[in-house]
Each structure stands twice: as structure tokens, then as C-alpha cells.
# Entry
Amino acid sequence: MAELRPVSRERGGLRLFTVFGIEIRLDFSVVIIFGLIVYSLAVGLFPQWHPEWAPAVSWGTAFIAGIIFFASLLAHELSHSLTARRFGIRVPRITLFLFGGVAEIESEAETPGAEFTIAIAGPLMSAALGLAFTFIVSVSLGEQTLGQILERPEQTMAGLSPVMTACIWLGSVNMMLALFNLIPGFPLDGGRVFRALIWRLTGEHLLATRMASTAGKWFGWSIMGLGFWNLLVLKSLGGLWLVLIGWFLSHLATASYSQLLTQRSLRTLRVGDVMRTRFDHVPADVSVENFIENYLLRSSQLLWPVIDQGSVLGTLSFSEASAVPVAERPRRLVTDVMSKLGTARVIDADAMASSALTALLQAGDEPVAVVSGAKVVGLIRGSDILRWIMLHQDQNISA
Ligand SMILES: [Zn+2]
# Structure
């Protein structure tokens, strides 16, 4: 899966390493799924194939196969990411989580061709890995044995070494991964391929997204239905997984569509349109104590432009003022502790709201002064932009 994530607020999980300049993170939910995979291999599948294996052999093989499985997921996401980069789209990080991985791409593909290529790159990698693992097995066993596996699976499987057993499993899960991802429901890769084709045919990006996400919802519901059927009719607990995956996919399909709408409505919006314009100043000759007692505590404003004879010298924030020790506050002026305008973090009123949103939220939602020329014309926080989105929902839906 490759997902557009212009707003990444949560930075949960563990940072693993950086490869090709892309940060690889591990969501903690992976620990659960990794445990489940290793457990089901070590206790379920491997003993079924190899009743003679000692538990240590089963667990060891399962553990290594589990690690290689996650490396395969990573290869899938890297394949999306490196392809996206060839089209000039930045990919800051990949997060592996419960249902696989997500490559966070920073902007939408600009052409249907680019979208198609980026989307198909992941499943192609999985299919290639699936073939590679199967190839390893067939080379080391010879075609005869591979034929025997298909004819008399149980006896032949029993004779395989741990390495070959892991390769057979890895070959089939990578193939399944490729096929599953090719199902044409957004936001699965197949949904993106589907969207690219509709986009190419109609020239309508929004229509294509709507169709692909509707297909994604249907697909999610079908999987949930299949899960309930498994649970209730076949009395198989495995159905629970399907219900969970189906619910998750239908939820993602809806969420990624509304995310696109939000992004589109932000596309023409500038910081000047959403900033707060009702704000007060503090004169330069006020002490920090006076500022805290008579300005900061009398208002909900968190960032204050400091002015001297009508011109702005800098900005003073809640945290800058509160960092001054109480005893020093009467002696020090606001100009001593403020950030001077040249060095303070400011945003231009003409900047796009969408890029400002990412920057503001990454900086922890601190307010920032909005400038036009050398003048402070407003104040803004990331949540102000989110508030604007909330207050313009109707417009987003009809966009
Ligand atoms: Zn993918």
C-alpha cells in the first residue's frame, strides 16, 4: 500500500533505520502480528508438515521466516517509494504496521501514468519475491520434487529441510500478497491501478477516486461478509480476521476519499485566508512580569507581536515568557526574551495552507506569526487550519 499522508501527526512506534534516505518505522501493532505469524507457523503449519521436527526447530524456522516475511513487506513498500521518487515525489518514511506497510508519499501523482506505475510497483515486487522463493525451492530440489509436492504434498513436504520449508511458505505468502493487493478497491494498490485507468479514460481525477473508493468499500464489506459466514456458518474463528480486515479496508476506503477532498479544498487556500486576524500587541517597554500578569493571563492569545512605535520588533510566545525565572521577571523587558522578527519562525501570508499545515503540526501546533512584507498581519496554528476544514465540510463534499 502507498498512502498519501500530508498530515502525519502521530509518530508512534519505533524508528528502525534509514535506507535510500527513507526512514523505516515499526508500529507496535507489528509485534502482535509478528507473534501471531510465528506462533501459527511454529505450532500449526510446520508441525503439520513435519511431525518429526523438535519444537526448537519449528520455532526457529518460524521466527526466521517471520523476519523475512516482514523484510518482504518492506521490499514491497520500498518498491512503491523508489518508483514514486523517480516521478519526483518525496517519500520521507515507511511504517510497517498491523496489516502490512504504508509508504508515506508527500503528494499525489500528477499523471495517470505515474499513478499506475507507482501503484503496480509494489505488487510486482511481491510477485517477483514469490517467484524467487519458489525458484530457490525448484532449483535445489529439481523439478521432479516440485512436481511431487503438487501430487503428494504431505509426504514430499515431510522430507524438506527447514530452509526449503520456509522458502515454500515465503513464496506462497508473497504471491498471495501480490494478488491481495491487486484487488481493485481503493486504497489497495489494485484500487490505485483502477483509479489510474479511470482517470486516464475520463480525465477526471475526482470521479476516478470516487469510483475506486466505492469499489474499495464494496470489497471491504464483501470480506466482512465472508468473515461472518466463516464465523457463523462454518464456525471457524479465522473468520474474525476477515471481519477485522474487511472493516479496516472499508474504513480506509472512506477515509482516503475524504482526505483527498480535504486536500483539494486546501489546494487553493492560502495562510492569509485562515489566519487569526484579531490579536493584540505588547509594547516594547513592558516588563516580562507585567506582560504575564496583564497581557498573557488576560487573553487566550499564545503568541504576542512586540511593537515599538507601530513597527513590529519580534514575537513573544507563552513558552518564551514562562521560561523566564519568576525572580527575574520584573527586571527583564519583553524585548530581552522575545524572538526578533528576523530570527523568529514566521509564515508568509501567501503560503499555501496545505504545506503550512504539515509544517505547523510537525512543530507541535505552536502558534506562528504570519507576515506580509515586514508586518505581522496575523497568527496561525495548525489547528486553525483544521478548524477551517471543519467549518467548511459542505464545501469539501461538493468540491
Ligand atoms: Zn502496495
The CA atoms of residues 217 and 250 lie 4 Å apart. The chain has a mean pLDDT of 83.
